[in-house]
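Problem: given the chain below (158 residues), write out its structure.
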Amino acid sequence: MPLNSQAVAAIHVVVDRNAYSGYVVTCLVLILNLLILWIFSGASRARGGVAINSEDGARYGASVSESEPPAVARVLRAHRNAEATIYPFLFLGLVYVLAGGGARTAIPLFSIFVLARIAHSIVYLKGLQPWRTVAFAASILAIVALMAAVLRLWLTAT
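Solution.
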């Protein structure tokens, strides 16, 4: 059944301005983190003089290989790991903000997650254990806490 103008008028979302601002900054920083990792993978490939596509090899005078050099593979694993946590976090963060979640919860959770993901990217690229696990665990805890906050909002709204 399509929404009529009365139904659309009845939809009212109250968004905490500070929570929304925190979400915007979080999105920008996390997306920048992903872009930097992606660019770094290309730079690592170029430094190694290897291309995975024949047209790139011909264009840049690089040898073509079906497999990634270890340095490039590490960057790509860091990128995949970041994607696996960043996308769910951004979705949950948007749900939280649109559900009227407050900045007192949002800002600390968003901050912890952003710092953990940046730290994770750095220590993953440098191969530093146990710090990689610590940063990953912090990001997972922030996701779980955000899930709980969304659930709490939903349960109190119904």
